[in-house]
């Protein structure tokens, strides 16, 4: 091991002191303390390695999700490209679910997903943002459906084991998570073929935080469509934003700093959109565009904090 | 479009989070019980700094408190859904580290060696691996051991004050072992690393104590020391 020279040096330094203590013959290999610590080192290393691997996977997810969001922003009423862009976005999102999240889930087989939460949460939140943004456009078409909640996403992130990496320890955590949180997922059938299935745990809190980011995208969309003269979209996004805000202020959550910070940002976005709608009403779409350009410069550098 | 922001989602989330908060409150009650017991044990162990003859008694008393903790840990474990240890673990990491420290101290005072993780886990009624259930996290164990190092450096000074000159040597040897153990770990730049960086000051303090004693030939088995001194002065 790389510690060889280091510990030897250490040993030499201690030698004069150890001379008169009866243990002078103990080499490092026989020392029970050293033995125990070699074991601890192995355990810590494997934990850190897994953590780093998940961080890497999560970063890829973040990048792809951001790109999908950019793609969705290109939806433009004038170009009539909605269906095409939506199709592509949905395809790419499904790919992320199929491959990227699967790899994370594989890393987490037999692990406590909460232990590695910090490693994957940026990617997951960004993904949820992209996914719900896609749904926003998708359901905007039909005008009936609502945003799907975490259970829907959770159902999508259940994977079949390809066979070779079956471990005896196949997520004991899966069952428990199901019956304690008030998920509606039927845990009984899950339990049965647990050996063949594993899943990526979609934590409701991560979901709520991810959707909070969605409001920033809606605000951006509102401003963009003002630029392109689609004032109907402005009013529409404003309405949706108002509803989201109502939902978020209705939550009573203690000990979640992140959420209250996001709600604060959400309020800023909301005020901005409401102001846009006001300008549209008072001055008509044409003039409001100029007001928006000067007053709302912030729209572009509003980000979620990573990157 | 008007229904897109589905308020039902928020209502569900509120239910979910209320459930979580209830669990957290129950956890806090149990953790407070453990904190109380640990405090008692800490008080018992303070006697070692002022009266060496009471060490044995103090260890016995501390052991009583510690074994009482294992019951409460058992109740605590029942509150935590399987596989969600790390969701709530921030409530008890601090106190668990404290208990590791107390146990390690007791074992050192009684037997003079470093308690390993398995033994600590056993004494607290915990498992060592997370797959087996409520367990003793390795980082908590290591943090507790590091706490013991600072306590030992204090103990070394005080035992000299009380006229026990052999003990600092023993402690010094023990700490050197501990230090070389910790050097085997590849620590990330986190809390454990920071705490480990403080270990060298404890080691330094003990080495100074040993130096002072050896220099003045104050050790109880003086004869041997004098010979040693003679040898080393000849070398110089």
Automatic annotation (TrEMBL), chain A:
Keywords assigned by UniProt, alphabetized:
Cytoplasm, Magnesium, Metal-binding, Nucleus
Renumbered residue ranges of the record's region Disordered: 1-33
Q: Which SUPFAM superfamilies match?
A: Translin
Q: Where in the cell is it found?
A: Cytoplasm; Nucleus
Per its UniProt entry, which superkingdom is the organism in? Answer: Eukaryota
Could you tell me where the Basic residues compositional bias lies?
1-16
Q: Which GO terms describe its molecular function?
A: metal ion binding; sequence-specific DNA binding
PANTHER family xrefs: TRANSLIN AND TRANSLIN ASSOCIATED PROTEIN X
Which InterPro entries does the record associate with it? Translin_C, Translin_fam, Translin_N, Translin_sf
| Protein name in UniProt | (Mediterranean fruit fly) hypothetical protein
**Record keyword Nucleus present:** yes
**Any one GO cellular component localisation term in the record:** cytoplasm
Record has Metal-binding as a keyword: yes
* Amino acids binding Mg(2+): 129, 217
Question: Would you identify the family this protein belongs to, as annotated?
Answer: Belongs to the translin family.
Automatic annotation (TrEMBL), chain B:
Quote the subcellular location field of this record. Answer: Cytoplasm; Nucleus
Q: Which organism is it from?
A: Ceratitis capitata (Mediterranean fruit fly)
**This chain belongs to which protein, by name?**
Translin
* Record has Cytoplasm as a keyword: yes
- Which Pfam families does the entry link to? Translin
Work out whether the entry's keyword set contains Nuclease: yes
Q: Which family does it belong to?
A: Belongs to the translin family.
Q: Which SUPFAM superfamilies match?
A: Translin
